[in-house]
Amino acid sequence: MINFNQKINYQRYASKKSEALSDEYSIVRCFESDRGRIINSAAIRRLQQKTQVFPLERNSVVRTRLTHSMEVQQVGRYIVKEIINRLGKAGKLKKYGLDNCIMAIESLVEMACLMHDIGNPPFGHFGEAAINKWFTQRLGLGKSTIYPVLEINNNDDDKIKELKTKIRQDLSNFEGNAQAIRLVHTILRLNLTYSQIASILKYSRPAYWSKQVPIEFSYLMKKPGYYLSEEPFIEELSKQLDIKPFHRYPLTYIMEAADDISYCIADLEDAVEKRILTVKQLYIQLAEAWGPIKKGDLFDTVVKYPYENLKQSGYDAIGIDQFFMYLRVNSIGKLVPHAAERFIENIEAIYHGAFNHALLEDYGAEYKLLNIFKTVGFEHIFNHESVENIELQGYRIISGLLDIYSPLLDMPTEDFLKLVEDQHHKDYLIETRLYHKLSSKHCVAYEQAINKLHPNKTGFACMEFYYRCRLLQDYISGMTDHFAYDEYRKLMVTF
Question: What pTM does this model have?
Answer without folding.
Answer: 0.95
